[in-house]
């Protein structure tokens, strides 16, 4: 007996993605996803991957040879950074000003590192002097922190000073730029960052699934001097480098994601990094002017506000859940809500990559105005 199985074609609503990620895709990036598939060691694929490496060096503003994209989301890049530089027993000073700083601490603990937390209240940046004083006191082997804290919309200032202090005690500095790379200034070499990583789906403007990462000499030296092997096979930097640089099979990279990342990075280079940073800054200001006109309050303080992700406080009168539901159901716009202590108390608006555009801002402000009226 044959049973007829009806085809079930999925339909997906068209949303305007203005949350904390993923961000809107440039139509050209979306088109790249449907190019013909290639084998992961095809010469054409190898050429595209080499080009991605060069484009990533441009985007990170680095000359680091050890620059590639990890197959996985931002969390896989976090784990790659930490699993390679941390050895069990290492003292690891972790800057925590929100959800993702805490995740750095959790991963460090899983790797057997001794976590030393330097914290700021959620919504504030960590005082760089406090981090520097703790570095001098503790003399850690590794310092890690988040540059752009997505849970609060706060940017951590003075990375270059923190880097100098870390280097004075021989520590490797790891910085998470998941919500800043490609959207606001990140300068790996000038700032002295030893390991820097990001994700595809925010200001880079690609889908999630390939995550940029770069390692400098100090980090490579620490990795070469390890007395214990890296505990992960999938995220072992030396194996990943053999794959990216010498085409030694390690895993089967996703061809569509490679095409999309290449296209997104090429767009960054064509726009020019500085022009792109400026665009995000101008659009953030335009959006903030609208937010002020709606008499809404912001969480992050003026000097520590991200250009890429804006956090708006909500109240019982202006309930987060209602606003988000109405935006989604009536306007097909996605924005994020609060997490951790800000659960139910915050709107998180991402103006990232292709999403940082005047027409989207006008659309969102118009929708917000009619919901709040
Ligand atoms: N770090 C930061 C600052 C993030 O915002 C995110 C995700 O939003 C991550 C790490 C983890 O990235 P993913 O969700 O792609 O695993």
Structure description:
- This protein is α/β, with parallel strands linked by helices.
- It has helices spanning 27-32, 43-60, 74-85, 99-110, 128-138, 159-168, 188-191, 217-224, 237-246, 255-271, 273-293, 320-331, 358-372; strands at 16-17, 66-71, 91-96, 114-119, 142-146, 148-149, 154-155, 172-176, 195-197, 210-215, 297-298, 309-313, 333-334, 336-337, 346-350.
- Strand 3 (91-96), helix 4 (99-110) and strand 4 form a beta-alpha-beta unit.
- Helix 10 packs across helix 11.
- Residues 20-21, 73-75, 78, 100, 146, 150, 176, 178-179, 199, 208 line the site of pyridoxal-5'-phosphate.
- Pyridoxal-5'-phosphate binds at residues 20-21, 73-75, 78, 100, 146, 150, 176, 178-179, 199, 208.
- Keywords: Aminotransferase, Pyridoxal phosphate, Transferase.
- Its EC number is 2.6.1.44.
- InterPro entries: Aminotrans_V_dom (IPR000192), PyrdxlP-dep_Trfase (IPR015424), PyrdxlP-dep_Trfase_major (IPR015421), PyrdxlP-dep_Trfase_small (IPR015422), SP_NH2Trfase/AEP_transaminase (IPR024169).
Strand content: 15-25%
* Contiguous uncertain segments of 5+ residues: none
Number of strands: 15
What is the radius of gyration computed over CA atoms, rounded to a whole number of angstroms?
A: 21 Å
Order of helices and strands: EHHEHEHEHEEEHEHEEHHHHEEHEEEH
The distinct ligands, each listed once, are: pyridoxal-5'-phosphate
Average pLDDT, rounded to a whole number, is: 97
Helix content: 40-55%
Number of helices: 13
């Amino acid at each position: 007996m044959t049973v007829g199985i009806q085809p079930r074609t999925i339909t997906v609503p068209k949303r305007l993605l203005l949350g904390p990620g993923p961000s809107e895709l440039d139509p050209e990036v979306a088109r790249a996803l449907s190019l013909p598939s290639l084998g992961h060691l095809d010469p054409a694929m190898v050429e595209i991957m080499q080009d991605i490496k060069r484009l990533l060096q441009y985007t990170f503003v680095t000359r680091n040879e050890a620059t590639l994209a990890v197959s996985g989301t931002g969390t896989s890049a976090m784990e790659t950074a930490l699993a390679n530089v941390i050895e069990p027993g290492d003292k690891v000073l972790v800057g925590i000003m929100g959800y993702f700083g805490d995740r750095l601490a959790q991963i460090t603990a899983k790797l057997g590192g001794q976590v030393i937390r330097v914290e700021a209240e959620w919504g504030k940046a960590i005082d760089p002097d406090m981090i520097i004083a703790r570095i001098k006191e503790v003399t850690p082997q590794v310092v890690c922190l988040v540059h752009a804290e997505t849970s609060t919309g706060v940017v951590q200032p003075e990375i270059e000073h923190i880097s100098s202090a870390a280097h004075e005690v021989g520590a490797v500095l790891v910085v998470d730029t998941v919500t800043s790379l490609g959207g606001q200034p990140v300068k790996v070499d000038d700032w002295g960052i030893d390991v820097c990583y990001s994700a595809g789906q925010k200001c880079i403007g690609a889908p999630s699934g390939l995550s940029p990462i770069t390692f400098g000499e100090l980090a490579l030296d620490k990795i070469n001097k390890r007395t214990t092997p890296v505990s992960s096979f999938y995220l072992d930097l030396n194996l990943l480098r053999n794959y990216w640089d010498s085409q030694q099979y390690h895993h089967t990279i996703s061809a569509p994601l490679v095409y999309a990342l290449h296209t997104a990075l090429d767009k960054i280079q064509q726009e020019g990094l500085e022009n792109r940073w400026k665009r995000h800054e101008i659009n953030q200001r335009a959006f903030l002017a609208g937010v002020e006109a709606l008499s809404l309050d912001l969480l992050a303080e003026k000097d520590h506000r991200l250009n890429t992700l804006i956090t708006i406080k909500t109240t019982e009168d202006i309930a987060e859940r209602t606003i988000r539901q109405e935006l989604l159901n009536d306007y097909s716009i996605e924005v994020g809500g609060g997490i951790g202590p800000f659960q139910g108390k915050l709107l998180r608006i991402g103006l990232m990559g292709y999403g940082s555009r005047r027409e989207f801002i006008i659309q969102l402000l118009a929708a917000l105005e009619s919901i709040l009226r």
